[in-house]
Design brief:
Blueprint (H helix, E strand, L loop, with lengths): L4 E9 L7 E3 L17 E3 H6 L30 E3 L13
Antiparallel strand pairs: 1-2, 1-3, 1-4
Length: about 100
């Protein structure tokens, strides 16, 4: 079993003990006032455990210039893999 920590840039963690995972579109937590720019990205396993979606809805890309009717799906970014979290803050729920 790997000890790697897998993070996603789609969510971030605030300092709250509960409901600490926020989507990237939210810039600050209304409860603890943490700001996204000062907090770590969320761990993929915690995002999944909370039932939050990791992948956006697949959107078709524009049709080929040759008029072909098969639309490919956009390539989705993969989560970042970190073996250590040096320099990252530790939210309350992980202390």
């Amino acid at each position: 079993m790997s000890n790697e920590i897998v993070l996603t840039s789609k969510y971030w963690d605030c300092e709250c003990a509960e409901n600490y995972i926020h989507p990237r579109s939210v810039s600050s937590c209304a409860i603890c006032k943490s700001r996204r720019s000062e907090q770590p990205q969320s761990r993929v396993n915690e995002v999944v455990a909370h039932g939050l979606p990791l992948m956006p809805a697949r959107r078709p890309t524009p049709l080929a210039l040759d008029g072909g009717d098969s639309a490919a799906s956009e390539q989705l970014s993969t989560p970042e893999v970190l073996s250590t979290l040096q320099g990252e803050s530790t939210p309350a729920h992980r202390k």
